[in-house]
Structure formats: structure tokens, C-alpha cells
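hey so i finally got around to running the thing on that chain from the lab meeting. sorry it took forever, my laptop kept dying and i had to restart like 3 times. anyway pasting the input first so we r on the same page abt which one it is
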Amino acid sequence: MSGPVCYHGRMIDVRGHSVLVAMSGGVDSAIAAHLLRSAGAHVVGAFFHMIGPADDGARAAHHADDARRVAQRLGVELIELRMADALREVVDYFLGEYHRGRTPNPCVYCNARVKFAHLLRLADERGIELVATGHHARTGTDAARRPCLRRAAALAKDQSYALHRLPREAVRRLVLPVGEVDDKGTIRDLARELGLHVHDKPDSQEICFVPDDDYVAFLRAHRPEALAPGPVMNVQGEVLGQHEGYAKYTVGQRKGLRIAGKTPMYVTRIDAGTATVTLGTRSESESDALVAGGAHWQLDPPGEEFDATVQIRYNHRGAPGRVRLLDAAGSRFEVRFASPVHAITPGQAAVAYDGDRVLGGGWIE
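ok and heres what got predicted. didnt touch it at all, straight out
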């Protein structure tokens, strides 16, 4: 697994080039750094201390220690940056979305607004052209040879959805070595062979600024109004019971509803204005359309209307649909799906793909 790496969909020689690698303390970024170093690049690592309010920094310190040990083992320089002030924007977004009755995706928001912005800035300060991460995605080009993001070789691990809001300049400079690896087991095996202690470190599933991964406690401390109690109703408007905070629910949720029924019930709607949570059957939780705003396009949309595969959350593999732009700037769009889709959730991203290429996406309204 040495030699040239894939960059913009072609194999290039990185020998003699400097690459700034975001090192999280996990196995994927460790192997990304190793692959680039093995290919002859001069690798510089960067670790961001992501510490939010009410966080004592213990988790960041643990990940930082892992990143230092990996960097030392690989023989690369590691730069550490404190990100508490920059993270404030992400925290405000996170709290605000729950207050509005929506389900936020802080990692998607943070990647473009914070992590990659600071990674590129640091690269510029150090005179480094290329940047890299351990994300499972690939770079490539479209028919016009414009740089674009593509799905990972290991589709089950694909993270291109989480990167869809990156600026085009970031995609132009981005190298994603592990996105070309078609099996996560291969990455862990290589890490073990290299003597990297993170070879069996679990993939992070937590929100970095939420202590103990308890978002309800975090809301209670910082935005308690998002936990206003209210009625639980069915789609016919009949009151079924009471809930203890509308932000504890998300569209599509089935477990933990504490409402007895003859058929399984799902959250179909959350109204923050009245603190109402509405439940329905599986078919009532499905829809054949959505509207998204705040769109960001990696590639220019191919027309005012076009067919695409649209992914509506991180663990959704996408569904075919017809996309229609709703304004001249393309900042809002509508998707009409070929068949109904379960749990279209306000606040999550709707990302359009042309085959395995990311076109762009927006926030579901």
C-alpha cells in the first residue's frame, strides 16, 4: 500500500510534496498519514483540540495523546491548535436547531465551517499546497475535468455525505488516501503491522463538545427552552399523551415514545412553536418530496431540473429523485422521489449525487 496516491481520480506522485494531514487520534487518519509518507510526501500532522462549553477537555486530551503517539511512531511533526472559540459557532448552530424543532448535523456543519477552514489556513501559513484527512471518501473529476468529491471504495464506510459542504478550493487541494481502501479491516491490519496502538481504537460516534454524549443534559444546561413539555398527537389531531421535551424527539423515531398503540408508531412532525410531537404509522412517516435550503454545490447543477440520487441522512444510501432548483442562485431546491422515503428529517442534509460524484446539498426544511 505504498507508492503514488489517488488525487482527483488519478494516481499522482506526491514525492517531494508537503501534505498537511488532520490527525484525530484515530486509526483512519493515522493510516492516511502513513500512506502519504510511504508514497514519498513530507507529512505534517495537525490536531485540533475541540473543547466545548462545560467540557473539561479530558476527551480532547485523550485523543491528542493518541495523535502524539502516532506522530512519534510515524516520525512526523504534529501541530496542535486550540479550537474552543471556533467551536462556539457550531455549538450555537446545534442548540439553535434543536430549539427550532429540527435535528442538527453538527459534523457536516463543522467540517466546512471550522475544521477544513482551519486546516487550509494552517496549510497556507506553512506554505503547504495539499491537505488530507482520514475520511472515507474519494476525490475525482467530472466530465469537464473539474475536481469533485466521490463516494468511498468501501461504500459501507462512505463519508462523502459529511463533506458535501466543503468549498471547491478545499476539494481541489484535498487528498483522501483511505477512501481508496475497500475494507476497513485492511486499515486496522496495517495499523497493527506498523505497531500503532490505535489499531483497535473504536470509531468515534460521539459529538465532540457534548459531555458523556448526553445531548439532552447539554440542552438542559444551555438551551432549556428546547425541552418544553407538550402534547403528543396523532396525524388526525387526537391527543395521545404528553411528552417531557420536544427536543428529545426526532422525525422517524420509533423507540422510547411511551405511547401504546395497535401498530408501531413513528414521529412524523415536531412543532417547536406549540411544543407538539406528532406520531403516525410507518406509511404516515413517509414522503415523496422535500424542500432544502442553504444549498452548497460542489459542481454546478446540470440544469434547473435534473435526476439524481439523493441521500437524506448519514446512514441512508440514497434514493432516486428529480431535483428542481427553486431560485436562480440555486440556494433552495425541491426533490421529488421516485417512491416514498421514510423519515425525511428537517435539519438534516439532503445531498444529491450523480453516480458516485457529489453534486451538492442543502438543509432539509
